[in-house]
Amino acid sequence: MAGRDDNRDIRGDVRGQIREFLSTRRARISPGQAGLPAHGGDRRRVPGLRRDEVAVLAGISSEYYIRLERGNATGVSDSVIEGIAQALQLDEAERAHLLDLIGAAATARPPRRRPTPQRVRSTVQRVLDSMSGTPAFVLNGRLDILTANQLGFALFSPACAGPARPPSIPRFIFLDPHAGGFFRDWDKVANDTVALLRAEAGRNPYDRALSDLIGELSTCSDQFRVRWAAHHVRIHTTGVKLLHHPVVGDLELAFESFALAADPSQSLLTYTAEPGSPSQAALSLLARWAASTTTPNSHASTHRNDSTNGRKTGSTTQDMTCAADPPPGPATPDENPAVSPGCLLLIPAGASHSGGRPLQLTVAGGRTTIMTTVT
């Protein structure tokens, strides 16, 4: 009985997501943009299109569209979905998201269960390790870093500095105050991250760990909560990231994301710099730094456990705590990533940080300065 109740709750949540997604999509389109006369002028009671106007554009009855927007997705045909997608001017990511939501609402599924730990195949790890000059990662749909190569861990060392395994990119972005200094385009990164999580929630509404993550971020971060309510979704497989690394400074890196066909929930993410650019020189310096220092990560510890609401590190579970939202934009010079106790940070010769001052590292609750040079 409990399993059936849980199943109904999830399907009810999906129906709510259909309602909110469709209503936010039609609110952004004016009658003029849709090629309709604007009846009522300033007296219109709703922003954007009314439900009956969407129905006219989609070629269906108003009653049918209203029933669908309320989440009753049983028996909806592909032609009806296509008509609604055209009426609301949905892009590729939004069409896919609507299909996912309608499929989830109309299909009986087993209740949510705690996921088993995700494993990265050894052949995939060997591929990552062979890319010695390219930061490379394997992510899951929740944007956990399941594993990476040496340069990948070095590049995202601020995001991997905490004890939680696997490291969570969304938690770093919204709950760690250092994220605003690491991502130079923090607002764009935050928007893209929420859009990716929203799309993943449509694909996998029964993912308990994803629901826990969204609940935690919604509780702890106003920045996340506002973005989540917008219901934006995005296909985000290529682009440019602007980073500020605490060791090598500013980086402008192109990224590519590749789905791993044998592991549908996993993707391979790579970063590259323009040949001959300052970013390539900084990336080469970072590679030398990574080869000469002990990092706070290892292949075994990184993807041994799946993240949950109580984030696991080995056999220890930490209670969820809320941190202040990171301020968008560069961090102040004194802000530096915390490093797990027992980790050594090396700064290569010629590298500068915070105007040449040594990094201040938080180790075992105290302030310790560690600096050395690598020739």
Q: Main traits of this protein?
A:
375 residues; alpha+beta; 2 domains; five-stranded antiparallel beta sheet; 15 helices
Account of the 3D structure:
The protein has helices spanning 2-27, 51-58, 62-69, 78-87, 92-106, 122-130, 150-155, 157-160, 169-175, 179-182, 186-203, 208-220, 222-229, 278-291, 299-302, and strands at residues 136-140, 145-148, 238-245, 249-259, 266-272, 312-313, 316-317, 360-363, 366-369. The chain is α+β, with helices and mostly antiparallel strands and 375 residues long. The chain folds into 2 domains: 2-106, lambda repressor-like DNA-binding domains (434 Repressor (Amino-terminal Domain)), CATH 1.10.260; 122-329, Beta-Lactamase, CATH 3.30.450.180. The strands form 3 sheets. It has a 5-stranded antiparallel β-sheet. The longest helix has 26 residues, at 2-27. The radius of gyration is 23 Å and the shape is elongated.
Short description:
With 375 residues, the protein is α+β, with helices and mostly antiparallel strands. It is built from 15 helices and nine strands.
